[in-house]
Amino acid sequence: MAADSRDLRSGDDSFAETVEALSQCEDDALSQAACGGLLDPHEAIEWAGRATRLVLYQRDRSALRSEVPALAGRLVVLLGQVPLPQGERPDALARGLVERLPAVRNALSEDVEAAYSGDPASRSFAEVVVAYPSIRALAIFRLAHELYALGVRLLPRIMTEYAHDQTGIDIHPGATIGRHFFIDHGTGSVIGETAEVGDRVRLYQGVTIGAASVRDVDELRGHKRHPTIEDDVTIYPGATILGGNTVIGRGSVIGGNVWVTESVPPGSRVIAEPPRNSVRPNPDDGSQLEWDL
Length: 293
Hints:
Number of strands: 14
Distance between the termini: 62 Å
Strand order of the largest sheet: 1-4-7-10-13
Number of helices: 11
Number of domains: 2
Helix content: 40-55%
CATH architecture of the largest domain: Orthogonal Bundle
CATH class of the largest domain: Mainly Alpha
């Protein structure tokens, strides 16, 4: 058995055909992706983690004097490995992102306030910052969105998919999200690329702000496919809101498990029909109930 294992690891030509096949750059999708050069997602994730920690936790000025340039330098390396807008240089884009870090911090501070004021289970701002998945997801999203706004596409996608993997909250970096935003619990929530979310909006778990159709994909690219959620809207668990022309008016409340594909005016209350309960006494013989629904 041991000898067989050594033979399999010996580097002989027994797998030559497999090696040859895997090394080919053909016309298939995987070959085109890999042979064009791929950014190592682990490097992007490591940078996102450093940036998130810096914005959320670091306040020591002497540490920041070294960490901010190091963060920018590492971003330059990453940007050198991905497609960039025509005429843009990695160093200029990295500087643009770093200059936006104070604005990102301010937005996240308001998100923390929204979580604390919106959840009676929270006991302090510190608890919200270190324990709430929505803050981790939003920290990465807000950083990724700044890069996306600079015309960078691949790196922000890796960042928000990492946040999705870690928190269950899926926010495309192209989405526009206003101030004082809170996702309570959050698992399973989805916000699509062209969604526009206003200020003081609150979501719960399992909410989808998505596209109404994925047919004719090429025709849909570059067009608004996801809803607009105006200010001061609350959307309860399991609600699905679809379509680029759908607008949820300011101050509306969208109830749980509803399906919305048309606009609703400001101040609306949208609820699903309540379930019909059928209550019958247990049979004396202990047999299985026959439900006539």
